[in-house]
């Protein structure tokens, strides 16, 4: 899997987990400490890569393991 495909699969996984948990992007931003604009750009618009720290913070808010967010092909 190339890096662009990986990033797209990761952000799709984050969106699905966030929606499943019933957490808004604004709430995710506030609880994770990641600026709303960054989350919107990287997660909702698939523009750019998230850092490992960001993925960990998002997983913590969603009450799941960061590993659960990674695409199945990489797990």
Your description of this structure?
- This protein is mainly α and 75 residues long.
- Helix content is 63%, strand content 0%.
- It has four helices and no strands.
- The longest helix has 19 residues, at 3-21.
- It starts with a helix and ends in a 13-residue tail after the last helix.
- The mean pLDDT is 90.
Quick structural gist:
It contains four helices and no strands. With 75 residues, the chain is mainly alpha-helical.
Structural features:
75 residues; mainly alpha; 63% helix
Mean pLDDT: 90
Please give the number of β-strands: 0
Strand content: under 5%
Rounded to an integer, what's the Rg over CA atoms?
Answer: 11 Å
Separation of termini?
Answer: 12 Å
- Helix/strand class: mainly alpha
What is the succession of H and E elements?
Answer: HHHH
Tally of separate helices: 4
Low-confidence stretches: none
Largest sheet: none
- Which percent range fits the helix content? 55-70%
**Global geometry:** globular
């Amino acid at each position: 899997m190339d890096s662009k495909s990986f990033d797209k699969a990761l952000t799709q996984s984050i969106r699905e987990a966030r929606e499943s948990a019933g957490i808004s992007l604004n709430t995710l931003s506030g609880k994770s400490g990641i600026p709303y604009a960054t989350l919107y750009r990287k997660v909702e618009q698939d523009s750019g890569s998230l850092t490992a720290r960001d993925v960990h913070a998002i997983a913590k808010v969603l009450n799941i393991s960061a590993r659960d967010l990674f695409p199945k092909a990489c797990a």
